[in-house]
Amino acid sequence: MASATKTPLDHFRAAVSKIIAMNQTSTMFTSLGAGAEPGVDPRHHNAELRYRGIRQTCEIRIVDYSSVSMKSASMSNTQLVDMLNDPQVSERPSWAKVRWIDVGGISWDVLKALAIKYKIHPLALENILHTHTKPSASKSDYYHEHLFLRILCLELRDENSVIRLSETQWEWDATMDIEDLQPDTQDRPSNRGAGSFYDTTPGLDAAASASVQVEALIQVSYITEKTPNSNQCRVEVNVFPIFILLFRNGTVITLHRTTNAKLTEPIRERLSRPDTLLRSTCDASFLVQSLLDLVVDKAMGLTEACEHKLLKYEKQLLLKPEVNTVSNLHILTGDINLHQRALAPLKRVIYGLRRYDLDRCIALLNLPPGEEVDVKMEGYMSRTALTYLADVYDHIDYILRSLDVVENLSENLIGYSFNLTSHEMNVIMKRLTLITVICLPLTFLTGYGASPPMWWTMAPTHSDIWFWIVALPVMAVVVPFFLFSELKNLYHVDKNRKLSQKALRVSYF
Known about the structure:
Layout: H1 8-31, H2 45-51, E1 59-65, E2 70-75, H3 77-85, E3 98-104, H4 108-118, H5 122-131, E4 139-142, E5 146-156, H6 206-217, E6 237-247, E7 251-256, H7 265-271, H8 277-281, H9 284-319, H10 323-363, H11 383-450, H12 455-458, H13 465-482, H14 484-508
Parallel strand pairs: 3-7
Antiparallel strand pairs: 1-2, 1-3, 4-5, 5-6, 6-7
């Protein structure tokens, strides 16, 4: 009845609105293919259509500090967006030298407000949105407005882990095929509230909604245990990226997918004490150095866990070699290789910050060749931060070298197990050879003497004694002939043993 009252003009407007909506959706999907515009512009309507489905209740902490004072505040998504939209409220206090905005959780409304307020580069924003749910290699990008770091954090999975169990319910496996990433209705959570990645988006069609859901299903742990029994033989590790943005005005923004406050709690505890170096320096780059040091320290526990597993398997292999122990060593070697591949880019990032920070900042000016020498410019990292970054570099280098040692020892133990199996097979073959050397001549004489007419069966007085009269001399010649090398080795071993005992008696007296 309602449709009957519509005028032809209303029908025309409705049709035009549908065509415009279809055109916007098709334009959005066309721009996502090959040759699309790089980066994410938060002011563009296509970005709003594509990413507004990424919603999460974030844990946001803002810390303003100087050498004499420190102020911390917690905010929700709406409170942060409202604060950033107000220029006066979002202004940093005059007494504060550094402002640290720590965002736990990834949500489009928060990212959009931060990107517009602090002029985050579109490529950096694209990196955050596309790699926050999967472990990507650590990297550093230099822009005119800020320094962007994507740091891959590795931590042991235990009761004290930063990643909660509910956040690792859907995990990502490094060996997972693309078919495994298809959305499964049985594995999707039924709760689609404000804290979920699966909020429905009215402006997106079914294909776009499925794309958002598939991307959200890819979680952060690249080492997953398929069965409960395999949990005991692997080093369980949580892997998640941390995004750090360092601005020249003393502002640091950190973003990570976990809402657990344990991740940055050590840094906030240091900031609460005025006698710490972090407070006394009032240096934003030193805060970045502290965050890098925190990530590297978390990886220290990974090395100790791998060494503990190796010692356990070594003891089992030396006492009682089993196939399961060799299988566990193979798994440990593969896991260590993954850890090395995850931590090696972090080492390069730290080295690049120490060695090429100033050079990369000068390269941003795009000066003609030869004029770079006369430019007076400071890098993003201060001298104090560069000094302490050397210690962080030593730690990450020690971790990688320790993992390399554990990997080599594990491979040596695997080789030892195969050599031990080969030695046992050689011993068995020697025993079979000894039996063959003894029994084969006797079998031949038995078959040869039993076939008539033979000289010891022709005479009626001959018995089986004549067989042994012939067999024993033959065995006395054949057995030493075939076992000459073994008898020679036995003689040398016995001779060396007697000489050793004689030397011990002489030294004793």
